[in-house]
Design goal:
Structural class: alpha/beta
Number of helices: 11
CATH superfamily of the largest domain: Alanine racemase
Shape: elongated
Helix content: 25-40%
Strand content: 15-25%
CATH class of the largest domain: Alpha Beta
CATH topology of the largest domain: TIM Barrel
Order of helices and strands: EHEEHHEHEHEHEHEHEHEEEEEEEEEHHE
CATH architecture of the largest domain: Alpha-Beta Barrel
Amino acid sequence: MSGTSTFLGGGITVDLGAIVRNWKALDTVAANALTGAVLKADAYGTGAEAVGRALYHAGAKFFFVATPDEGVALRKAVPKSLIFVLDGLVPRTAKDYAAHGLMPVLASMSQLTEWLDFCLSQNKAIPAALHFDTGFNRVGFRQKEAELVKRELDQSGFEPQMIMSHFACADQPSHEMTRKQNGLFQGILAHFPNIPASLANSAGLMASKDYHYQMVRPGISMYGGRAINGRPNPMAPVISMHVPILQIKDARIGETVGYGAAYRLRRDTRLAIMALGYADGFFRSLSGIGGQVGGKVAINGTFAPVLGRVSMDMTAIDITDVEGLVQPGDVVEVLGPNLGIDDVADAARTIGYEILTTLNGRFSRSYVNVPEGLDIT
């Protein structure tokens, strides 16, 4: 998400103070559990090193990344934290995890065997977690393997740091799958008494304290995104994005706009061409073509719709109804007070996660409301 442009105006702004407030609010909701923080995909595109430092400064000690490379980068920023690698153990790399203090979330018998063999070779138990699949059918031990895993642990004397699983449908509050997974998870935990457990993502954390167990793992809610569909989003917005206008022109009724001549003007229109396209994460599905309503941006508090197809580097918007002087070099709001990540996601027919993690391209990233005394450089 960080860019390198020094010529284009605007850019991406991340409110570190808002991320910290969101984490603290979630920590309050999960008062009887430890609250971790999911920083995978560069902290959902907001910058894992800066966010990790801010959250550690605020009291977070447990972090979750997807890959060992993400873990290595985060370790440099928060050297005293505990870092779990959700993708598990990459074959033949156990010594590298240990060298960087990374805890793999083991998800198969082959991973468990390799980790136990490595621990034996080092003559010590090196921390790791276990992930069980409770119906998601992604990574994880099958429920029927619980007894076998238990025997392996008993024979080796190894005790995992945590037993984990992951919800498939917690963002849909009435979905039966969530209760079913929780029941299966409880059955798995019966094999591993006294070992801490973790099941709740953002949605699970917010849905019910029954899902909190010993640790919760918020992700999208920390970054201001909607965790549960159909409910008001209580989280503070975190990210804003403004991009410059390259050119303004007047076009006549009947003329077309953009590739494929896919949008024909229904009135005389004042167009602004903004320096933003799908190479920057502004999805092509936000195009306004034919009878399809596309995305929109905001100028001076007024929405300006996308006209024509979003191209790689530029997108046309209709500023006919925008009051006040608008000229090249002015910036438009792509994300901000008027347009949250879920507003853009709804228009693009996707989810806020994808908006956050794909806004990259050529725009600089800066931080505001950095906690006092925190160095994020």
